[in-house]
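hey so u asked for the seq, here:
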Amino acid sequence: MPGLFHVKPPGELMTVGGDSLHVLVEGDGPAVVLCGGLAGNWFDWDDCARNLSLDRTVVRFDRPGFGLSEPSAQIPSVRGEAQRIADVLDAVGITEPAVAVGHSIAGFYAEGFARLFPERAAGILLLDSSAEKNPKRLVPRNLLLTASHLAAATASTAGLQRLLGTTTRKILNQSVPPTGPSHTMAEWVEHIYREPHYLEAAMIEYVAYTDMAMELNKLRESEDHRLPDIGISVVAAHTGHSTPWSVSWMAKQQRLATYLGGRFHVLRPAHHHAMIDQPEKLAELIRSVTRR
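ran it, structure tokens below
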């Protein structure tokens, strides 16, 4: 990655599907692939992966433009990201079915992976997943993409991203590791969140959200893409404080679990990045996906 500082990447930079991706594999045992949400990075999963790797082969990767992966000109899609999961597993030599864990928007990708590659999926766990019943696009996507490129370039040129990058993470990600952030993690945050292409990749994935929600709903309607007979869990994060929004969110997550025919769990206390707040509890829930 251009401009990389003195901290050595924990994983490998691999060419996967034509893109240079940062991929990290740890542990031994049944395979689990962890997919972060919008603008997620590999280190968000550190504590959860450390626990899981005691008896699982844990695969993490940064999508293009995030973490230590190079940016890509491709616009995210459910099919494209499901294919990426399969390609990453191929690249690291994992041929047996894997449990796919998708956080937030990556819930679309994990479910898409199971529907499009049923023979590769041992189970799925959707963590505080995005869920849209009737998504509609009100503004043309091309217009929003143009605006995203312009906004990202402006923020970078004006120095706003370098100035506010780490502050933005603190606002969007209120979770803190139980032992506190390590010095190395703090360095990665400071470096990655100030990369110009990181902001652009996040904005583009956000713009693609509505199209991907509609794409997933079409897959759900297709007889050719039914979910295989696998373990399915939907896990919702709850801060422990009841608000109208939290009640609505819990109901939405429970409806998703019912629709998919899966089990429903609540992690509390936890913010949206529950893999940081409750890494050990989440690791055990991931293990339980294949215990039916």
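The mean pLDDT is 89. The longest strand covers residues 19-26.
lmk if thats what u needed
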